[in-house]
Design goal:
single chain, 397 residues, Endonuclease, Chain A, 15-stranded mixed sheet, globular
């Protein structure tokens, strides 16, 4: 069954990349071999070893005449280092910022909309989509082993589709930003609207894949709807690994319904405390899911940043979208859905290894014996999170 939110494109070759250790060498190699143009979108762009590798590669490409576009989020990349900015602009890289003006004192929905996509496109023939920001795996002090995440390298027609979407967003931000400046960046009159949005790429493999986007216009629920339809149609197993898990009622209902009809439903979630409020608020959902027969495993070996899933070891998704109101209702996100047993099997095996070596299963009988203090903390976090959502206009998400 093909979810209505998805349009699968045949003829692609996909490579699963785990962590920055595999992602950044592949990305830099593609940038170094670019001939015409490059688009890079990222939420974070850190001043560290991986950031230096990517910034230097983009500068080299622009210096040899490649048309290079870098789109940063105004909140996630608010601390984008001046040394990168100066190096990139001297080389001729065009840099744009999505919604640069951020007020810490407002929760209005339009202020909270962010560009959370992680996409890179090279010559309309190679694309990268996933959850990996431009940040080193070991960026968190004392973190060993590395942050746990995935991306996909795409060759074929879907790479051209990713390029068209990247060019469309770049052009929209360029028009919206005209006449305004982000402090320290070049005069906006230097920004050029992306050209050639009808690029195509020949078939080069046998994978069927779809690029699902989330925005506030035509694709408001595409990623969530794709998840829900795949969960509803699953016959044997659903495995979801997600860093920030705070789903709405529809999503929780779908997971419980799948478990009730005999589907093995497995969640691999963040075990370490990264964002205190979300960490404890999400645990208010555990009891209902565990009672319904959903398995929950908490990844503790390092920080989990993955946003992936496998359905019946046949369909898989890798992308930037968490399962929370921020991703499903506010942020611009991008996920690749792959209808290919070999790819899905590879990702399923990787998740299985992570659960075996780096996670601990949460048992219902132990969850029922939580201390009163921890129960209170979880309840207060949940109520606070729901209050924040109501103020921000999330409704019944």
């Amino acid at each position: 069954m093909t979810p209505m939110a998805l349009e699968y494109v045949p003829g692609n070759r996909l490579t699963l990349l785990k962590n920055g250790e595999q992602y950044f060498p592949a990305l830099v190699d593609a940038i170094d071999n670019a001939r015409r143009e490059i688009f890079v979108e990222t939420y974070l762009f850190a001043d560290d070893r991986s950031g230096s590798l990517v910034a230097s590669a983009l500068a080299r490409a622009a210096a040899r005449g490649v048309d290079v576009h870098l789109l940063l989020d105004g909140f996630g990349a608010h601390d984008f280092t001046p040394r990168y900015r100066d190096m990139l602009e001297r080389a001729g890289v065009q840099v744009l910022v999505f919604r640069p003006k951020i007020s810490p004192w407002t929760l209005r929905r339009n202020r909270l909309r962010r560009m959370h996509r992680k996409i890179a496109c090279v010559d309309a023939s190679i694309a990268f989509v996933g959850g990996i920001n431009v940040i080193d795996d070991y960026d968190t002090p004392g973190q060993t082993p590395p942050r746990y995440d995935y991306a996909v390298r795409i060759e074929g027609p879907l790479a051209a589709r990713a390029r068209r979407e990247a060019a469309r967003l770049w052009s929209g931000v360029a028009w919206a930003s005209f006449g305004r400046r982000w402090p320290g960046f070049a005069d906006p009159s230097r920004w050029r609207i992306a050209r050639g949005t009808d690029a195509i790429a020949p078939a080069c493999g046998d994978c069927r894949a779809s690029l699902a986007l989330r925005d506030s216009l035509r694709h408001r629920r595409d990623i969530e709807d794709a998840y829900l339809e795949l969960i509803a149609s699953a016959q044997a197993e659903v495995v979801i690994a997600n860093a920030y898990f705070f789903p709405g009622r529809r999503f929780r209902r779908a997971l419980r319904a799948a478990a009730a009809r005999g589907v093995r439903v497995v969640l691999l979630l963040q075990g370490r405390v990264e964002y205190t409020l979300l960490h404890y608020a999400s645990r208010a959902l555990y009891r209902g899911l565990l009672q319904a027969g959903v398995e929950i495993h908490e990844y503790n070996r390092s920080f989990l940043h993955a946003k992936v899933a496998v359905f019946d070891t046949r369909v898989a998704t890798v992308g930037s979208s968490n399962i929370d109101p921020f991703s499903f209702l506010l942020a611009k996100e991008a996920n690749v859905f792959v209808d290919d047993a070999q790819f899905a099997g590879q990702l399923r095996a990787s998740l299985g290894e992570a659960m075996e070596t780096g996670a601990r299963q949460v048992r219902l009988h132990r969850w029922r014996r939580l201390s009163w203090w921890l129960r209170l903390r979880i309840r207060l976090a949940y109520v606070t999170a729901r209050l924040v959502m109501a103020i921000a206009g999330y409704g019944k998400a």
